[in-house]
Each structure stands twice: as C-alpha cells, then as structure tokens.
Design goal:
The structure is a homotetramer. The first copy, chain A, is an alpha+beta fold and about 475 residues long. Chain A folds into two domains: about 10-250, Aminohydrolase, N-terminal nucleophile (Ntn) domain (Glutamine Phosphoribosylpyrophosphate, subunit 1, domain 1), CATH 3.60.20; about 270-455, Rossmann fold. Chain A is built from 17 helices and 23 strands. Chain A has helices spanning about 5-10, 30-40, 70, 75-80, 125-135, 145-155, 160-170, 210-215, 255-260, 275-285, 305-315, 350-355, 370-380, 415, 420-425, 435-445, 455; strands at about 20-25, 50-55, 60-65, 85-90, 105-110, 110-120, 175-180, 185-190, 200, 205-210, 220-225, 230-235, 240-245, 255, 265-270, 270, 295, 320-325, 345-350, 360-365, 385-390, 430-435, 450. The first copy, chain A, has a seven-stranded antiparallel sheet. In chain A, strand 20 (about 360-365), helix 13 and strand 21 form a beta-alpha-beta unit. The radius of gyration of chain A is 23 Å and the shape is globular. Chains in contact: A-B, A-D, B-C, C-D.
C-alpha cells in the first residue's frame, strides 16, 4: 500500500477521539473491572491501552500499543492485583504514537507512586513545561499528563489534596482524568466540562468512566456525572468532593461527542446519545426535502440519524453498503495490476439494491471528505443513478484545541471550500448540512451548554494558537 | 472463562459454514487475487486460511490457523508467485480443528502436485477411505478432501481429466471445489448443487468463488454459476466444461445459505440475497401481527429481515442493541465476584430506548437458542417490558449432512421442544416462525430447487446415519 | 548480510549431521524424556525438532523448525501425554528445509497411527517412491522416511512385524530409526550400521537414542548398541529382537562420527569418542614434527585432538581464539562502510598471545575450507607470524551418500586440489593430514569395521550416482 | 522447575557483572557499531540491551529485555540512524529486572535529549535521590543513572560541560559511563577507576567501550584507557579531556574483572587478561602440590588458569566435562518421576575419562558454592575417585558495593564458613585458594592499584551500609 493509500485507510475511521479513562476503588478485581471498562470505551482510542493497579502497598502496571483485547490476556490482568485501578485507551492527540507515551503515566516521588490517565488537551502545557524545565525537571514523554504529575509532585509536601488543587489551578484546557496513588483514587474534570466523566457504584465499590456504556458493561449503577471543575477523592475513608475552580456560569460540553464520538448506548451531558442522533436525523428531514428512492447510512455511525430521517420523512431505509466484520489491522495492498479496491475492503455496496436508484445518504459528519468521496464513487460504480447527502451537523470549519484529532485547518474540508466545492469534491448530486440551530434543538439543551468552536470558531478557552499534535516534542 | 462460557462465546456467532473456496487462472498476481477473494469470503470460515499458487512449474503454499488478515501479510503473499492460485477459508465440518487439516490440501504424485480446496461434506467419505486404506493408502489428515486427491492419484495414469471424472463418480454428498496442478485450475460442483460456486472474469483471467461478493471486491465480472454436476477446466488452452454426473432433474440448493450464511451483498442460486432476506421479513409481517412499540434486529444478521418486516408492517425500526466493533479473539472472563457480562461484550442494549417498551425482535434463525436466550435476558434487564420474536425461517429440526455445522440432533433446540417450550426457554412473550411456504415464496424459486432437509428431514442424498464431525478421525 | 556471507556463516559450523533420534517406552513422562534426550542430541541437527507421543490410545505430536529449547516449552511438552514417545532433531540431508519435512513423520492407516524418526539416507528412496506412486500412493513430504511408512502400510494386513520386515528388506542405505504406533516402540538399524543407535534402561522403561550422551543426561543405564540389521520391538509384552537382513560379515561404521559428529562424551561403535579424538592428536604428533611456539585448537571441536597432540609432542597448549557464548540465530551484517568481521563474531583471537608467534592449529577436519581460511586470516591479522595446521583425519575427497551433508564433490576442497593448493587456499605455512592408517589405529578397531568412503571413494552400499539433497523433490 | 531449582540455574553462571557500555561518534553507522560493540560485551550483562543514536538533530532509541542478538534485528538497527550512538548491556545491580530499567536511560530537558549508559554502582544514590525529590523531581526508574541525569539537568543552564562537572562532583562510587546529547558523545570514569573503560579510533571516528574485545571486533584501534576521574567529550570540534576529581594517588581497579568478569581476549587496567589468568594457575601450581591423575577446568571460565596450572605443575590437562552449546533460555524441568538432571544440562561429564580417576579442578572462584557443589557431585557420579579443587583467587568474604552482584554477605560461602566447612559443603577431598599475594603478583601490578574489598573488607569508597539491589525501589 502506498503511504497515501495507508493514509486513506487511516482516515476511513474518521476523526479520532482523544482518549477514554476509567477508575475503580474498592473492588477485589479492580484491574479486571478496568479491563472491561476500557473494552467498552475502546471506540475512544485504539492506539494504546494501559492499566495501573494497586493493592494499597504496591503498584502494578501494564501498557502496550494496541487494542484492549490485544494488550491484555488473562495472565497480564492477573499480574495486576489490588482493589484500586485506573485505565486508559488512547488515540494520540498531544504526544506522538510511541510506547513511552502510552498511558496511564506513572512516576515515583519520595516513595510514593503517582499515576494518571487523561482525556483531553491542556492548552497551556507548553508554557507549564517550560517553567518546570527551568526549575530542573526532566521529562520522559511528550504527553501533557506528565506536566500534571510534575506539578503535583512539586507541592506534595503540602499534602496530596492541596497539591492537586494547586496543580489544577495552574492547568488550562480540557481534562477528564483519573488519578491514583497506592491508596487513593481521584477523578477530576475541567471547569468547562469539555469531555464527559461519570461516577458509578458497583456493590460497595466506586467506578469512574468516560461514558456510561462502561458502567453498563460491568453492571455498575450510574450515580451522577463528575461535575465540571470537581475533584472526587475516594479512599479508605469514603468519597469526598471538592470544587476547585469556579465554573464560568456555563459549560462547554463538546457537541461532537454527541454527533460522532460517544457510543450511542451511552448517556453523556445528561443526554441519551442514541435519541439525540435520531433527532438529528429528524431535524434533517424537517430542513431538507430530497427526492430519492431510499435513504441509507454508511454503517454504523450514520445508522441512528438515518433511522430518524426515515421516520420523519417517510423515506424507505435500506442498508446499501455491507460492513465486512473481519477487517484486520494489517491489510495487503492491491498490486499495480489491480484497481484500487479502496473503500470496498470495509464496506461493500449491494449491487442489486443500488442499480439505477436515487439514493440519499444520511451521514454523521464530514471532516476531511476523503472517505465520503471514495464511498460515493463506489456507490456510483455499483449503479446508483443519483447520490444525495445529508449531514447531521453543520460544516466543520475550525480546528479543535480540546482533544479532537483534527487540529489543523488544512485538514478540514469545509475550512476553505464552499458548499458547492464540497459537493463537487465528494461527488454528490446534492448536499445538505444540518443547521446549527437544528442541531442544538435536537439535543434538548441550551446553546450555552456547548463548545461549538469547530463550527463557529468561538473558543471557550484561550489557546496557544494553532499548534500541531507534536507541540511538546522537541520543545519548539 | 469457564469452558461452558467459552462454549457460549463460540455459539454467539451462530451456526458455522463449512468453508469458502476461491480459484484464479491467468492473472499475474493470482495469490493476491486469492487473498482478496478469501477476505470477502471470510464469513464462510474463520478457523484457518490457506492459499496455494503455481507459476506453471513450481507450487507454493501458505496455510495457517486464523483469519485471512492474520494468516497473510505482504511478505507471505509475495512468497506465493505465479498465475494460478486456489484458496480456502475454513470452519471445521469434517476434520478437527488442527493445522494439518487446514486447506487447501496438497500432495505430490509422480512429480506432479495436486491441491484441492473443498466446501461441503462427502457423505461416503468413510467408506471410500476404508477402501483406499485396504489398498495401502496412508492418510495425513482427517478432512475428506484427502480422499478426493487419493482417488484422482490412483487413476492419473489415465490422464487428469479422466482421473477427475472417475473420482467424481465415486464421491457423494456436497462439494464445491477448486483444484489445481502446476498448470491447470479446475472447479467442480456436486450434481445437487448444495453449495454455491460461481465463475467470473477479470480482464483475461478466470476466477472462481463461492459467492459473488468475492468477485465484487476484486472487480471481476460475474459470468455464470458453475452448474451442479459440472467440471470446469482452465488451462493454457482456455476454458472447458464437462458434465460428469447426470443431474437428478432438480437441484438441492441449501436454503440456509439464503437465510443466514451467504453475504447479503452476494448473488447465489440466481437470487439477490439482500432482497430475499428483506422479503422474508415482509412475509413475517404478513403472517404475524405483533403489538409492539418497535421492531429491532440483533445486528447485523437480522437487519435485512427487520427492514422488510418494518416496511410491510409499518412498525418503527430501532437499533436496540449496539455492536461493539472491537470484539477480540481472546477475551478475558469476568471473575467469580462479577456477574457474567455474557452477551453484552458483543452487543450492548440501549437503555434509554428499551425501558418500559414492548419490543419485537426480527431474527434470522434459532439453532441452539443459547445466544437468543442470553440476549433476550439482556434486553429485559435493560428494561424491555415485553419481548416478542419473529424468526425468518421455520424451526430447525434436523441435522445437516452437507456441510453445515449443526450435525447432531441434540444441538437443535427445535428438535425436541415444542413451540411453547422454545418460547419459554429463550424467554420471549411470543414467538413466531416463518412458514415453509412463506419462506420458499420469498425466494422466488420453486420448492424443488432447494434442500429443505433441516426443516423437513427429507434428505436429497443418502448419508451414513448420524455421524459426528470427527468421523474420519481414528477410522471409527 | 550478502547471501555469500550468509553461506559463510552457515558453513561456520562445518558439515551437518543428518539427524538424531530418540525413543522411549514405559515411562510415565515419555515425551519429557524425549525432550531431554533430543536436547542432548541437538548437535546432530539444529533445523527442526519434533516429538510424537502415545498414551496407548491416542497419538500426540509437536514439530517445528528450531532448536529443541525453542520448539518446546512446558506447555508444549504437557500436551504430549503418554508412556511412549519418539523424537527427532534434524538437519536436512534428504528433503528441503521446510516445516512439512520436520520429523517424526506421521500418517494414519486403517485406524492406526504410524510415526517414524529416521537418521541416515536411503540410497534407493527414489526408485521405491517411483514404484509406490505407480501403485497410486501420494506423498506429503520429500523425506525418504515417508517411503518407509508407505512400505509398511502396504503390508500391514500381514501384521506389523511382518510388514516391518518386508519394508526393511526393500530399503537400502543408511538408517537408524525409531518408529511407533499407538502401543509399540520399535527401533531398527541398517545392516551396515552406518549410524549409531543404542539401547538403554531407566527403571522399568526402555529408551533408544542415537548416542549415549542422551542416556547420560536422563540417567538411563546403557544396555547395548542396537546391532546392525536388528529390529527391536518394545510393547506391553516386553522387548523382542529380530535380525532382518543378514549382516555382510563386516560393518560400515561412519568414521566421521568419531572424527567430528558424535559428542565427545558419547560412546559409539564401542569406542569412547573423547579418547579416540585425543589419540588422533597423539598420532598427529607421531606423524608430524612442527616447529612452533604453541599449539591451539579452534574450540571446541578441535580441543580433544589438540590435547592429545600437546601431550605426545610436548608442545604448549594455548586457547588462541575465544568463543563468544552468545552467538545468536540471526545476526546483523556489517555495513558496506565496515570491514567484514566475519569469523570474529564467533571466535575472537587473543592478541597478546598471538603477536609474533609461530602457531600450530590442530583441527578435526577440513571440508570446504572456507571457515579455516577465514580463521587463519584472522590469526594472521592478530599478529601470528607463522600458522601451521594439522588435521586429525585424511583429506575428504568423496561425497557421502549415507547421511552426511557434503553430498557433492564440488563442495569438497580436497576433491580437486592438491595438498599444496589447499595449503595456499587456506593460507597456512604448512599443512599435514593424519594418515588413514594412523586414524584407524587410533580407533582401536579394525579397518573392516568402518565406512571410509569419504576418504577412499569405496562405497560399501551402491548408490544412485551423485544426487543432490533435493532428489526427492519434483521426482526428477 | 521449582523456584529453588530456577535459582540454582540462575546461579550456574556465577556472579553477574553490572553492565557493559559503548559509545561511538563520527561513524555513519554508529548504531551498527554499537550493536557489534555490545555483542562483544554481552558477557557483562544478559538481561537487557539498548542503543540510543542521534543524527545531530533527532534521537532514536531501542531498548528491550534480552540478549543483543535477540533485541536487535536488521530492521531495529536501521531505525537507529545517525553518527552518534551509545549502547548498554545490563545485568541488574541497582534497580530491578524490568523493562523500564533497561538502559540507556533517556530524558528530555528544555528541548534537549540526554541519554546515559552506566556501568557500576553509585554509593550515595539514595541520598542524592532524596535531595532531588525534596526539590520536586519525579522518577521513572529505580536505576541510579537517572540520578545523574537529574543532577545534570538542574545545572544545564550553566552549559553542559559545567553541569557534568558539577554532577560528577556530587556522585560517589563506581561509574564508567557513556553519555550523549543530540550532538555530543561523552565518556567518564570515576576517580577510583573501579570499572574498565577504553578509548579507540576507527578511521576518523571515536569509540568508547568497557573492554578492548569490543574494539577488536569492530576492528577499531585501541588508543588508551579513559583515566580514572577523566571526562572525555567528543563533538564536531574534536575530542577534549577534563580531569574532574583529583585522583586519590591510587586507583581501585576491580580485581574480579581480571579473575572472572572481563573476557580473556581483552586488555584492561593495562593487563592482558588471558595471561594474568594463566599466571593465576601457575601461582596455584607453586602454592599447592596435589597428587592427581589429571587436572581439568569447568569450561570455559576455568580454562586459562587450568592451562597455567598444568604448564607449571606438569599435570595432564583433560576436559572432563563437555559444554552443551545449545543451552536455551527457557528450559523445561524434569518431572517428579525423574532425578534432577541439574548441572548436566549445561556440562556433561566424560564418563570414560573420569572413572576411577583422581581429579584436580582448577576453578576461577567460588561465590555461593552451589554450582561447584552440584558439578562435583556430577563428577563423582560419573566415577571420579578423588576430586580436589584449586581456586585462582582468595576466598570471597565481603560483599561488593561497586557493581558486582553479590551484594549481601549471606550469599558468600566464605563469609561464614571455614575452609574445612567449604570443603565439606562443595564435596571435595581437598581445597586450596590462591593467596592474596600470589594473586597480586600474578597481575604484575602493585597492590595499591586494586580494590580488594571482596577479599579484605577494606572498602576504598565509603558506602551506605549493606543494602540490597532494590535500595532505590520504594525509597526506603
């Protein structure tokens, strides 16, 4: 496969979430809970997986590149004893894709072990790292989580709680973290609440996870969301909550979690994700009127909006492309003598269904547009007469500085292209985006609850300008 | 995981198809074509994968336990040069699950290499093997494909074509095979045509595959099905067809291919699988009237009938369980201290959708019933008030002797249980099966075209009584 | 590494022995005994390792490319239960280096499993295979052991013992074999006794091995050698000996086993190998008078003759080259910018010792001369002023057809070169070979006991002309 | 294998050296040089291997548990481009046996990468680490090399050279290090010169290595030893030497390097190791007069003293135990039903040689005595009538705090036992140790040059009392 083709393959999966985090305290198989929790959060990061556990005295770790089920086997989990554990699945946002950057990040300080799992992006990581280095700190990774641990270590003589509070006062941006020492589990979320983080209970033990689907799998009871700006500390003495930073009156929930990232069976920001997506589709049906033989999603991410769209519009729903369930990690490229099978390796069109038909695609979002372009070409090759597309959010015009991996303007198709240009690029007969208002209405929450920066360019937290994913590498 | 739990896990995926076969002649990257062809046929067998290629002089092979994308990487495919190749994906029907039984089976005889890839089950393999051993033959595997090669070798002094014809006259049962020597590709299908096998063309080269989805992926043009009882020989001199055994006036297409096995984007037995499945759902809507809030499939196998059902009945379609896309090969079991997460590892219910609702499940088939039982329990735990189930085929009451892995009566839920007992076992409020007539009508073909033995017990080809998968092991 | 360099690396280790075989009957951990036995016989073959075991009913196998300690771990051995086992370590002589040719070779016939481990070369394998194929036999491997199993299977209706006797009457050449069925262990050795094979006892159980060093490791008691032309059958009824072929009055013990192949701590052909090698050195001292500062071997194979030489001649013994104990399987090649470290990767010269010195090397044998040439260059680079070489056998002029891997004349340095030419090629100041008479005398046995064909060209068993290792591949 | 047996296996190899270090500057394949250099230094550490390289801008690393040839393949070395490299092989002394402790240790600070490879033990690491943590430093490993990097980072604003000098002024104990940044190679050795470190030249490039055998393999020219207390800095501007700490008038060369650790073909501390060891044997012959049939070493470590002993005493030299060249990393244990093969897995006695004989073993040293005890038992089982032992150094009575892995008194056989008790424990008929004076005389250097603490208890550098290998773990 040429590197260009590989790039295409990589982009198949759309924008990548920062990470998923998990924590458990008080369960005799804490690491096993973490394993299942991370398994349920796998969609939030497929690059590396890691769990750190503690039996109250010793800390154990296992981190590797790969999916949860690849990284952990029975033996690996059994080498992680104890009643406390945190875990992390990661797709790189800050920090490059190498093993040393696999989380949780662990360090030891004065006989104590500190471990952190972080979802999100600090917006002042570079500045803070510079300050720490000026005081003599050395760094092992390029992940901004290491900065948080340094900040805590430097004040830990004041007690862990005070050190935490002081560290959190210094960091800015998006962070939903689980943190642990030998005998405590801590969870904290930034004052804007960019990323979801919820608290659950399982018999007597506490669990924390990025999404409720992790609680569901381990059959933990959902208690409540960790609030923006809240620190929750769980230890032998029970559970305790601290509000560190004053909240700015309004939150900045990432609306892209609802559009694409979170699992449809999760409940985040107080919303049922499945229902919100279906409503996006209903809103599309209200805003557009497309004449087509049937509507179809690109499975599975577009399924829910497609169902809503068909329900409201009365359009027939079909599954015009079939997912191959056996897509492997490594895939051999066609040779020069073959045509590029491209997208069909993952989704194969149903010829009998498409021939001579007018089709409307209901899609969750268009980021770079490369995948859409290829898939639409495949549909046309399979005989579709007309292909229309409805997208369940507005055009993505601005990069995200809070943890979503489409950080540069150059990568965003809608950044420099008009609707007409986009239509031509991806090759559809017509193209409609859901309006900002329609999208917000569908959530049932007020506009003030959300960070809409990727659509509006209005960033709720100031950031150090446009910077690449590798900003902490080489310090420049 | 206890072995019982593992067994459950294994059964998640439902009945297993025998195998998928592929062949190519005249393409400079024949093995690469086979790789993509097998990739598209992966649903027909996930236990082992193998390709044999020839450059006209030397024969190369690579066979391993595992999925196509696990068994082959760029390097492995590059070590398979030549313009001829056959390939095989396998789930064990005859022969146990060990490497030596991975196909294609290869042997050398008098300076010639003979390789075969076989989908189906010979019904007189045991008898033939006994006869061969009495003449001094020794065996390497427990797969009945080895019997075919022995038969061919014993008559090859009469010429390959004559040897083939004589071998095929001796074997009985189900076989859709690709076969090769250093310089020929041969495909043959039993006179009943139990299993599908089609011929395609790609520029100047010929390809043969179990299903058209393999032709689609490699962008080969579908030419026609290999007919029941036909041998197709492709070599330097072109393509040649021989009709070996007289067809019995009627075919015995396996209807379970249409119900469950074949990919929905394939065209087999002259039918568009996607459309047939949708029609099964429509027929269900005609035969049953269930009062429910919405209908849902167990994704993805039930999707198509569910769409048909909703279309015809007007019921709302929902996706009440979400597939986890990251299900790994090895999975760690919950500990004693945890409840059994069982089915949720693969499919998670959408709580917000199910709570307090009356649900009708549209399912393709019920074989052992264990998976259905677990999934229905999960739906109830997630709050479903009523769960009804409609199945898009009649009850499976008889084992299959022609290549489907539910060979013993004991494994079939409907074999010893009444409708009422099945209903209670799987835990639904009501249960309806599609009628035999409704099912046949949906296919658009006549009843005479199909083998319906698993529903009716009328076997089109006599078999050696009930025998287990391992009948060729230890010769007993 | 260029392929030429790799070839050099491969040749470092000198000529390769055919194989080592082992068998055990009546021990509760028969496979574990085989593991240790093969471990002790590893010097006889490093390409593949395999064990087959039986518990009296079922047969278990594990064969892989690699050393015994690489191929087997605790888990692999535990999957080989039973009280009967045979094992094999292999360097390819007949048959190419691929997994399918790993021994023991196993086949099933009429409900019975037959397994064989073979050391040696059949000289009429090609003829026999042709006859078998004419009768319809198909072949899985290119090893001549498969021929033996076919021959046995064809007559097994007469009883195993009779079938064995008839098979052995047909095969010619060198064979020291262990063979087993579900309930018997059999060992047999060709009438010439080319390869060693001994019988031992361990508590109540019997063991068979190529060399006594295998008995030593498992602390079995040496009983006696399996005699040339003898079949030993061990089963529930005890042990039984049959003499199949009349012995030709004289044996043909491979003298190269004493010179190089067998381990010095073994006792074979009634000789203590260590003592014989020391005597070779003593004989060299008697035949040659070299003026040097000291004598040294190339460790470890030359150590024993060097000790004998120094003892008799009074020369000082030094270890002028030090073995690196960590030589790995894969080794990275120097880049173009570096000089070729060649031989030093394995043996490093001791500079302080060699500078300005006159050295005499006592070496076991020179086959191709490439390794000697490189090593001598290394000694000169390290400062040696004069390098003389004494070799503890006569010049190798003729290929071996009985199991030693220097089968073609072209590979033998002494085949086409005069003493003077050899001296110049390997770069020594003087060169002396032990005389044939001196060598024989050192063994303490009569000339009639040995096959001396590699020195004299007089072959004790007729052979099918010069043929390559791959003679059974492609049947030509 | 029981853990006790494993422990025995581990002890087979005698005391373990701390580490081997290597560095190269100015060679286009610096990492490949490091690969070969480490390969030659493998005897100094077999637990982990690592190389860090730089192309002047970027730094690349590869570190794993395992031997050099296991850790590196062609691909891994090719991913380490650049003209600067340092490398490390490690057996744990300080720090436990886990991947994160594999060296070189790397950190980044203010946009600069600092990497270090360290042989030896700091005696004030614990104190320094405490001071650093009090200032807020966090730690990743338990190796004391991390302390050195922290010290350098804290002063690097004064320039690297000044930072180095200040760091070195703070650290105490044994250290022979290679260190690098993106554009410099630095080597430094403690003022006592406990561990060897030498400088070489290869065409225009500089190399540094623990022993000259590494220079030999890569055909670099030996220039001189890095002097005790010297820092050598190599960069674009050439080479520069700084003397940091005043030397105490006398050095403290580790005499155990000469006795056992260094390779015999190396030249360290100005001595030819091979010759010194031979002289140890000669001195033994002068000090003892043992009546025996022959003398033998335990190969290979005892070979050199045995040669010297036989030369001087006139005793016959034999190789009474044969090394198995195929000892694997993992080894399966005998079952309960077998006797423990123990030592024979590695060294097999030559029965024919030993039976009824009086044998004198010339051995380099006795540390724990467990291996000697087992081997002597094996010799007696093989028939030896009398076994005497001569040891080429005095009894080891005191632990080493400078990098040798026999840090606790409890492990030293001679610590609590009289000569008579040792004799009985290891099972010899007589036992003689070389006198301290004899040993020193054999080296040709004065007593003042050496650290003799393991024999005399007089430690040249004060240490923090008896501490375990894990003293830096958990900070206690």
């Amino acid at each position: 496969m040429s590197s260009g083709e590989k790039e295409e393959m990589r982009k198949f999966k759309g924008p990548k979430e920062a990470c998923g985090v998990f924590g458990a305290f008080g369960h005799e198989d804490a690491a096993k809970l973490a394993y299942f929790g991370l398994y349920a959060l796998q969609h939030r990061g497929q690059e590396s997986s890691g769990i750190v556990s503690s039996d109250g005295k010793n800390v154990y770790e296992h981190r590797r590149m790969g999916l949860v089920t690849e990284v952990f086997n029975e033996e690996a989990v059994n080498r992680l004893p104890g009643h406390i554990a945190i875990g992390h699945v990661r797709y790189s946002t800050t920090g490059s894709s190498v093993l040393k950057n696999a989380q949780p990040f662990i360090a030891s300080h004065a006989g104590r072990t500190l471990a952190i799992a972080h979802n999100g992006n600090l917006t002042n990581a570079r500045t803070l790292r510079g300050e720490l280095e000026a005081k003599g700190s050395i760094f092992q990774t390029t992940i901004d989580s290491e900065v948080i641990v340094h900040l805590i270590a430097r004040k830990i003589h004041l007690g862990l709680e005070e050190a935490l509070v002081r560290a959190i006062r210094k960091i800015e941006g998006a962070y939903a973290c689980t943190f642990m020492t030998e005998d405590e589990l801590i969870a904290f979320r930034d004052p804007n609440g960019f990323r979801p983080l919820c608290l659950g209970k399982l018999n007597g033990s506490y669990v924390v996870a990025s999404e409720t689907c992790a609680l569901d799998l381990i059959e933990a009871e959902y208690v409540r969301d960790i609030e923006p700006g809240e620190i929750v500390i769980v230890n032998e003495n029970g559970i305790k909550s601290i509000k560190v930073k004053k909240q700015h009156g309004r939150s900045s929930f990432c609306i892209f979690e609802l559009i694409y990232f979170a699992r449809p069976d999760s409940r985040i920001f107080g919303c049922n994700v499945y229902n919100v997506r279906k409503k996006f589709g209903e809103k599309l049906a209200e805003e557009y009127n497309v004449d087509a033989d049937f509507a179809m999603p690109f499975p599975d991410s577009g399924n829910y909006a497609a169902i809503g769209y068909c329900r409201r519009s009365g359009a027939a729903l079909e599954i015009g492309m079939i997912r191959n369930h056996y897509v492997g990690r490594t895939f051999i490229a066609p040779s020069q003598s073959m045509r590029d099978f491209g997208v069909k390796v993952k989704l194969n069109p149903v010829h009998g269904l498409l021939e001579g038909k007018k089709v409307v695609i209901v899609e969750d979002s268009i980021i770079r547009g490369t995948t859409s372009r290829m898939r639409i070409k495949t549909l046309r090759d399979a005989g579709a007469k007309e292909v229309h597309m409805l997208v369940s959010c507005p055009p993505h015009r601005y990069p995200c500085y809070y943890g979503i991996d489409f950080s540069t303007k150059g990568e965003l198709l809608a950044c420099r292209n008009s609707l007409e240009q986009i239509k031509r690029y991806i090759g559809v007969d017509s193209l409609g985006y859901l309006s900002l208002e329609g999208m917000i209405e569908a959530t049932g929450l007020s506009r003030d609850c959300f960070c809409l920066a990727c659509f509006t360019g209005k960033y709720p937290v100031k950031h150090d300008g446009e910077f690449s994913k590798l900003c902490l590498e080489k310090g420049d």
